[in-house]
Amino acid sequence: METTTDHSWNLRIFGHDRALVRSIDSTTMAFGLGPPRGTAKDPSRLATIIGDKVVALRYCHQVHGRAIHRIEAGSEPLVEVGPGDGLMTAAPGVGLLVWTADCVPVLLAAEGAVVAVHSGWRGCAADIVGAAIERLGRDHRISPEDTWVALGPAVCGGCYEVGPEVLEALRTFGLDETRWRDGNHFDLRGFLTARLEALGVPAGNIETVGGCTVESPELASFRRDGEAAGRQWSMVFLNL
Asked: How far apart are alpha carbons 30 and 135 in whole angstroms?
């Protein structure tokens, strides 16, 4: 695996997958790209990631909630840790991975700890990014001001029309609606960015990476392809 030590995202082969990768200081983030169709969640894809940079991988059985698992270093190379939509670790070399096919992969990094989160509209309504920020503060004494966040490829607002019950659930946060909705269209990454800023993460510490999953034929999209859709993984880890 090749990475970069500047603040740019580089296209690399990571395992058997194409991925946008960035390595800064003690942390590496990677957003897998596709495959657009085929086996949705294939552990054999993940086994190829494990090597000299990542010695173990952990991921959840995703349920569109706000539960975040605390991950310690372990001897098993590849483990699904159970129901949840987020993982946090302070163990170097342990890759935290989420699967998406329109929802937002959210990678959070700070000095000494990292978090990976999966958030669709239900995750937004459950405030899983709020749970992630709270856990970093409680478990590692990391402030929002010292946290860096990358939001990976996801459905864009123009391609995501939702019902009034979704909009009502999201209005309870009191965020500027011009940042996340246009009529009945919902911008997931716009909402999450506004929410992270409200939680105290500086705007300059939040980055959107990659395009719309529906509009990009090389990316997996459930809204576009239904059950035939693949899945892309996104991962963050502390460097060894």
From this structure: 22
The verdict on residue 24 lying in a domain is yes
Residue 103, amino acid: C
> What pLDDT score was predicted for residue 148?
97
Say if 109 falls within a structural domain. yes
Query: For the chain, how are helix, strand and coil distributed in percent, rounded to 5?
Result: 25, 35, 40
Rounded to an integer, what is the distance from CA 124 to the centroid of its chain? Answer: 13
Report pLDDT for 7: 62
In tens, the pLDDT along 186-210 reads 999 999 999 999 999 999 999 999 9
Low-confidence stretches of the chain (pLDDT < 50) are: 1-6
Output the six-digit token pair for 98: 């989420």
Whether 101 maps to a domain, the answer reads yes
Our count of domains for the chain comes to 1
Which residues constitute the domain of residue 67? 10-227
Find the CATH number of the domain harbouring 133. 3.60.140.10
Q: Do residues 6 and 19 make contact, with C-beta atoms less than 8 angstroms apart?
A: no
User: In this predicted structure, what is the pLDDT of residue 149?
Assistant: 98
Does 55 map to a domain?
Answer: yes
